[in-house]
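Annotated sample (chain length 99).
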Amino acid sequence: MRTCLEQFMHDLEWDAKETAKAYIAYRYPVQDRDPIIIKMRPEVYFGAPVVEGTGHTAETLWKAALAEGSESRAAEYYEVDVNAVIASCRYCEEIKQAA
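Output written by the structure step:
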């Protein structure tokens, strides 16, 4: 079990009491800037994956892209960077494939 868990340890964020407070579920690299981070926190949306800096869950942005027919139209509607929508779509598609 240790071998399985160790690969995810670098994606955990800890509080002052050394308790895990967040899990970085996905990093989407963006050229010439910091990556888009999708993070899970128990106290935010009951632990649903949220795109950092947007206040939206990855699933919300993914479904918006599907409904709108494009990532750019979903980004415009939700007033977020198109890379946040692209990251959400990649994350949700990867989770979907793994399930």
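Annotation: The longest helix spans residues 82-98.
Annotation: The radius of gyration is 14 Å.
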